[in-house]
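Table 4 source record.
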Amino acid sequence: KLNPNRYATKKTIAQGMLDIALLTSNASQLRYVLQVGEAHEFYSAMLALIITSIVLQGLNGIFQIIMGPLDLDKDEWKTFLNVVNYLSIGSAFGIAAIDVIKMNFAPPQTSKI
């Protein structure tokens, strides 16, 4: 039998690991953009997108921490957990959308084979 609490915990942990990888990537991009400075063609746009993505990732992490220990089977938590889950999904969608937009501002990669 599938235990929804165990599944939700594993999903939250897996998502947290992916969030850490994405946060590391954003920190690296932020460092690069700050090092290049205004010489970067899209300095302001990249800076705004990276910072927004990092803030949304922080909020999503907080939502995940809130959801983690609460029991889905208890009726008093169901509505609250649904709201927090929807906020988490919305922030995850926002992060993904921002990262797609960010990819269009990145300099083209040249492959050296």
